């Protein structure tokens, strides 16, 4: 049995990814917030909803997916039942030290998933407390594996991983939208333009992951001398595309 506290944007995305990719909904118990958001999701996905944190006592692993403002009160309630469990917090402002401070000797982890977890294609960075055993890590990985990749990172890199993998789906959405605008400008209908741009993004990502070549070499492969692709790449550079992407990450990092 696994438990969730909070099923908003990221909690809901992880739960959806788990169940849609084969995790048994009967093995998931969720304590929701004040709105009917959790029960509406439960109607679609079939997991159990409870009203109190202590009703998650049968869970071996509990995921905290509330925002910073609710974290302290959730940890106070969780402390009563947490001693024999693995606690994984998605809350951005959490840290292993803060979780340890509030929960005592409990094994804790801080993880930052991205929204593609919803379709089993997520990328989640995670930092474990020192007392997590390999067995414990395997247990968490076996759950999060339903939602995509889980990668252990040092905690001081969790923030930038969260930006590069977590904010950038929105950056890529802007790129896809712009590309389809360009397709429409040159005569494609909107539906086909989106299909082409999205299909390209999925395919290029898959190729980049599966190829032995790095992305720079993949670009070199498709830029023939004097050809249309290198002219497009040069235009991207002329208009500061690479710098715009770096500045977007800088902006996301500097709050
Ligand atoms: N969104 C992302 O892509 C993402 C990615 C990685 C990490 N994070 C981090 O995850 C945290 C949550 O973000 P979010 O975008 O999912 O926010 P969100 O959509 O506002 O979801 C938070 C949920 O927590 C619930 N909640 C509040 N108090 C609760 C309580 N005492 N017990 C149980 N549930 C409670 C709320 O339920 P009600 O609405 O029903 O009150 C709400 O649905 C943030 O710290 C964020 O930085 C987000």
Features:
binds NADP nicotinamide-adenine-dinucleotide phosphate, 8-stranded mixed beta sheet, alpha/beta, 255 residues, Rossmann fold, ProC C-terminal domain-like fold, 8 strands, 51% helix
CATH superfamily of the largest domain: NAD(P)-binding Rossmann-like Domain
Count of domains = 2
CATH domain topology of the largest domain: Rossmann fold
Share of residues in strands: 5-15%
Q: Tell me the distance between the termini.
A: 37 Å
GO biological process, one term: L-proline biosynthetic process
Keywords: Amino-acid biosynthesis, Cytoplasm, NADP, Oxidoreductase, Proline biosynthesis
Function: Catalyzes the reduction of 1-pyrroline-5-carboxylate (PCA) to L-proline.
Family: Belongs to the pyrroline-5-carboxylate reductase family.
How would you describe what is shown here?
This protein has an eight-stranded mixed sheet with strand order 3-2-1-4-5-6-7-8, sandwiched between helices. It folds into two domains: 152 residues, Rossmann fold (3-Layer(aba) Sandwich), CATH 3.40.50; 92 residues, ProC C-terminal domain-like fold (Orthogonal Bundle). With 255 residues, the chain is of the alpha/beta class. Helix 5 links the parallel strand 7 and strand 8. The longest helix is centred in the C-terminal third of the chain and has 28 residues. The protein is elongated and about 65 Å long. It has ten helices and eight strands. The site of NADP nicotinamide-adenine-dinucleotide phosphate (NAP) has 28 residues, from helix 1, helix 2 and helix 3. The site of NADP nicotinamide-adenine-dinucleotide phosphate has 28 residues, from helix 1, helix 2 and helix 3.
